[in-house]
What we know:
It contains seven helices and 14 strands. Helices cover 27% and strands 32% of the residues. The chain has an eight-stranded mixed sheet with strand order 5-6-4-1-7-12-9-13, with helices on both faces. The chain has a two-stranded antiparallel ribbon with strand order 2-3. By secondary structure, the chain is an alpha/beta fold. Strand 5 and strand 6 (73-79) form a beta hairpin. It has helices spanning 35-45, 59-66, 86-96, 118-128, 179-185, 195-200, 225-235, and strands at residues 3-9, 29-30, 33-34, 48-55, 69-70, 73-79, 104-109, 112-114, 132-142, 147-149, 159-161, 165-178, 210-214, 219-221. The chain is globular and about 65 Å long.
Amino acid sequence: MTFRAVIMAGGRGARLGDAAAGLPKALLPLGGGHVLGRLLDQLVDGGCAGIDLCLGFQADRIIDAIGQDWRGIPVIYWCEDAPLGTAGALREVLRARQGTWPSDTLVANCDIVADLDIANLLSRHRHHGQGASVVTATLVQNLRFGTVDCDGDGQPVTALREKPQTRHRIIAGLYLFRTADLLFALTPGEGRLEMPNLLARFLVPGAAGIVNLDLLGDWIDVGLPEDYARARDRFGTC
């Protein structure tokens, strides 16, 4: 089940405001440790062979907190001189060490707080045989207003719905790739590249394709104060 993980941990967490207490998102206190430590534990438990951390804001602080290994698994750091985008940083990491990478690569945002069974996700990714897998969570939204089903002005109304509930499948900030397909999709020297643009390359005719993997269990993005508070209520604080 060996794979390698690349974690994007360069964000400032500006939307958190005072809730961040001057810390980078990766080091927000959670469950007796911090957000990044929880994710690293899940990766190690899932059989990760090595971890690459892409850093930017307060990089030195994160390096001091994590060290050169996590529970015996080597950690390598990559610091951006200029913003490369989520996929641009990934390109630099993989291109620097071609030939030493496992057959599968996991990419995650550092602010994922979720019930992650990494080994299960990797097994499902390999079973479906696509070049990429996007892990998704379910978002339920309650509309404040009633809605009308019709084709437009003057057209018959076919249904009335009072404050309906809608469900959406959203990207959970976690991706699995066949490394060979990922390298093929990353163009050397391209500059800034965001993850949606990279994933689009897997959907063109003849490309390796993407499969959805539903995430089972709780999922929280701690980018907003209210969501961080919810994560602390769910998973505890220091």
